[in-house]
Structure formats: structure tokens, C-alpha cells
Specification:
Blueprint (H helix, E strand, L loop, with lengths): L4 E6 L14 E6 L18 H16 L16 E2 L2 E2 L1 H14 L9
Antiparallel strand pairs: 1-2, 3-4
Amino acid sequence: METFTSLRQQTAIDKDGIAQENTLRTSRVLQKGLTFYSKLEILPNAFSPGIETLFALSATVFRRLGKMRNRGLGEIGCHLLENGVDVSVKKLKEVENLIIGKGGIANVSA
């Protein structure tokens, strides 16, 4: 774990510039510049449109991880590939159309 991560500490500062009591937080963060790849294979008998929808929605959540607003902790990316082609946006649009088609309100962004 030490090879890929480091610890960052932060605390709340009061209006006088003094650290507030009991506000010290420690986070484990990935080292800058790392890239991880993973291959996920779904067996044909386990595949369903519901599984595909789950992965499409999960990809959007992963994109939100790590940003921590303006604190410079970076962001991560997650892409769905089919035969080496990124189909993330296409799959999200399909989910959005499915939700809107059922009368729901969708706000799915790529």
C-alpha cells in the first residue's frame, strides 16, 4: 500500500488562523500519475441488460471520486469498452432514454 499511496492530513482553521480542536483528518491518497487498468468479463449466461445498466451507471459514479473539489487531489476515470471501443457515453444515453421513456426524470451526464 505504501508503494501506491501516501497520507494527507488536513484540519479546520478558525477565523484567527488557529487549528480547531478535534478537526484533524487523515486521508490515504493515491500517488500522482498512477494509472490502473482492469479487465472485467461477464460470462454469457450471467449477462443481462440490467447488468449493463448497472455498469454504465457505476462508471458515472467513479468519475466523481477523488475530486475533493478544489483541494488538488485529482480525479479518476472509468470507461466501458466493447472490443476496445469506448462505449461509455452511448450506454449512458441508453440508460437516460430508458428512464425518460418510463416517465422518470433523468439527469445522467457523461
